Amino acid sequence: MKRVKFTAIFGLVIALLFACDAKENGVLQDVSSLTDNITYDIISENPDNAGAEKSSKLCIEPLSIKIEDALPDETSEREIRLISCGDKSLEIKNVEIISDKAERFAVIDKPVMPLVLARGESVIVKVRYTADRCSDTAAYDEAKLKIITDASNASDSAIYVNILAQSIKGEVTNDRNITDTFVSNSIKGENILWCIDTTKSMADERENIKPNLKKFISYLTKRDTLSNEYNIIFNLSVVLEESDEPFLIGEKWYYPGVFIGSENYPKIISDFPPPHPRNPAFEPVTEKFEEAFLANSSVLQDRPDGKESCLLALKKALSDPNINDPAGNKGFLDNDYSYLTLLILTDSDDNSSAPVSFYSDFFKTIRNEKLINVFVIAGFDPGSSEPKPLDCGDVIDGKGAVAAKRYAEFMSKFENSHFASICSPDWADYLFEKHFNRSCNVEYYLSRRPEVGSIEVFRDNINIPRDDLNGFVYNSEHNSVYFTGNAVPANCPNNVTIRYKAACN
Questions:
Q1: How far apart are CA 424 and CA 381, in angstroms?
Q2: Angle between the 356-366 and 405-412 helix axes, to the nearest 10 degrees?
Q3: Domain total of the chain
Q4: Rounded CA gap, 426 and 212, in Å?
Q5: Buried-exposed string 226-256: b where 16+ CB fall within 10 A, e elsewhere
Q6: Do 62 and 35 belong together in one domain?
Q7: What mean pLDDT is reported for the chain?
Q8: pTM score, whole prediction
């Protein structure tokens, strides 16, 4: 019951007396007008607290949070409403997570603090939980949402909301025990993927292209003069620049993102093909490297100009389902330690639909950025190193090569990237000089980020200690290992093996 002013009560009593008197005299009177001017002043919920000082109070809905069956490496969000439910306004100074697993919890969509809530006002904050991405068992993570406030029901200026989160057992990465192997300077692993424009506008440039492709394959397949081993271990494939529609040539369909394999040649040309049973993309195995490469790179020559989109075509080639399809491209990326070398040959610019960064970010999920090489042979001015329209004598459309602006942006996303003019008569020499003619490795880039304490390094089967002066050092910024002092070999080692446990975060 709420207490009202004395004047209101007195007026009401008088009105009731008049009403009783009227009824006793047999006359029923309308007494509503007698109470028209009565006013009510609500002071307190409790009539016994008359004159008590008003106080602030913070109510919370819900009082606790439970998140169940969170998927590994995925996020779950819950809302919490903070309500000013006292007699006066209150101030919320901050809202924060308290937990020994604080990296898995976050407050999101938090309003600007400090925040004043008038009586009856409320605000919503969200808590986000990200489950352990490589937990071996179902995990339970606890946290508290600390609300710092001047509300009267706070203890030491804070109120806490308990949070319990449970993640499902399972790992995003199935095997965290990683072995990266680096062969000697003279034997380097390369996964080489060309995107080649085979449309009609390339007709005149093609006179210059074929001798350069021959040079490229001759450089790639050189043997050591003493051991007669190939200088480079490679997988070599070609994908078309067309990313939308399949093409029927003769009786054979060619699909966007699927490596080209001309008749009698494999889709993955390799100087060290895997042993039996091997993926069909390596069949039939051949050592006629030049014939196979030239055949695969010209199988759809002089097609009508379409949507030349090498960035999307390369992404499709290295994405599911193609990269894991035995009838597609499976086997190309089997060696995690190998370089991924992307080469684009075109007289057009890229017409892929997504922003350039979308494609560069994708390739960086496949390899450490230090292990990615990008080469673009297109419309570039050798003098200014800028994309520029070029006249290579193209008589098809009269424009020659257009400025490769998106490809220039794509190259800028990678440290190891180079361009060459498609009109240059010797771009293959430049390509080999810049990349394939490397000297001894001095730094070894890891394929995954490690738990640093788990790293073991072996050089030609000799265990190298961790030592800043005479051993190996892990460089966190580069995610790499390098040798120091007397651990630096006088000659290039035959192999370097680095074992470690991949970090979860």
A1: 10
A2: 40
A3: 4
A4: 6
A5: eeeebbbbbbbbbbbbbbeeebeeeeeebeb
A6: no
A7: 79
A8: 0.54
